[in-house]
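Re: the request from the purification team.
They wanted to know what the chain is likely to look like in 3D before they choose a buffer screen. I agreed to run a prediction and write the result into the notebook, where they can find it.
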Amino acid sequence: MSKRPKKKEPKKKQLNLGLKQSPFNILTKHKEKFELFRAKWDTKRYTKSTWVWFSIVISISLITTQIVVIQEKIKSLPKQIPLFQFYIDNTQRLASSTLIYLIPTISVIIFLLGIIFSNKYYNKERVLSNFLLLTTLLAILIMSVSLIRLINLY
C-alpha cells in the first residue's frame, strides 16, 4: 500500500488574468460605498434647503418672542389666568400664572420633534418632510398668537 502523493490541482484563475476575485465584487463594494456617500450627501442637502432654514429661523424667533413676552409681563399677570381655554366651566379654565411657561416648553418640544422627524424622512419623502416643517411652524405660530392674546387680556 504505497501512498501516492496527491497532485495539487492548480487554482482556477478567472479569465487567466490573475484576479483573485471577480471584478463584479469590486463594483458591488464600490456601489455600497457610493450609496453610503449619497445618503450622507442627501442628509447634508437637508441643511442646504432654504425652506428648512426659513422654518427653523422663524420657529426659533417665535419661541424667543414667547419667552421674552412672558418675562416682561409675568409680574403684571394675576395669580390665576385662563390658560386652559378648552374647558367649558370657568373654574376649570383657571390655572396658576407660572404654568404659562408650558407654552414655550411645548413649542420647543414640537419644534425639536418636527426637526428630528423631518430630517429623518427628508431623503425618502421630501414633500412629507416639508409638510411636517410647515405644520410645526404653524403650530408654533398659533401658540405664539394665543399666548400674546392671553397676556394682552391683563
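For the purification team: The CA atoms of residues 66 and 145 lie 9 Å apart.
Please add any questions underneath this entry.
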